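Quick one: structure for this chain?
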Amino acid sequence: MNLTDKQKGISLSLFGVLIITPDSLFIRLVDIPSWELLFYRGLIPLIILFIALISYYRKNFINSFFINGIAGLFYAILVALGNVTFVLSIQNTNVANTLIMVALTPFATAVLSSIFLKEHPSKKMWLTILSCFLCVLFIFYDSYQGGRFIGDFFGFLTAIFIGGSAVVVRYSKLVNFLPSLLTSKLLTLMIPFIFINSISDLYEIDMNTLYLIIGMGACLCLALSFMTLAPRYIPAYEVEIFFVLETILGPVWVWLVILEAPTSKTIIGGVIIILIILAYTLSELKKSRLL
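Got it. Here's what it folds into:
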């Protein structure tokens, strides 16, 4: 079946977000310090991507990194920095503050796309982004705590880095950025060495934790691969609007496995966000005469 660019972009974005939704659960279950966790969030995807890419490119594996050029290196740096600022945000503020800041990603992506790519979101897209963000504010309003500027600032930087990486992919949309994603994972696992007390700390984990780390890394690798490919087919801000679903569906996994029930606001806001994104997606598909 031949898919249009719109279908490919929406499918990659949606499946990528759905695959990454258990990430919050894995972070809760993997009981290790943040920097060690960041190391493994770089290592496991690095191994999986390395095996997949070397099998795909074979003799052209090394050349695939040079094809991406400066844009590929810039993308890798942005993704790695986004990983670091996310951890720093979590360490310096509460989860609600971080999630609100990260929910600004579609806004940041839309602004960056307008400035650097001259791809201006439609009024309907702006309305969708604003509606989703207001729902996130509704969900976390009671949990938000002021006076945590440093953590909030790092959360805001995370939104900019994530949005910026998607814009870079969109800018060079004819290029496969998966080799650059591999580079970003290498940078991600190298950064924690600056902060961990001892390398031996990385090996002091039991088998159950190791299985969880591998599962987390596999989901992260597959999801990021899809989200990296998606901006080749649809505008970057359309990709990132799906990212808001992770904020909503993540607590559902925690509820199902750990039995940590979400609040009524989470359920109400989550349902509204899902309906908003579903309505926008169906509208775009109908406009393209795909349904």
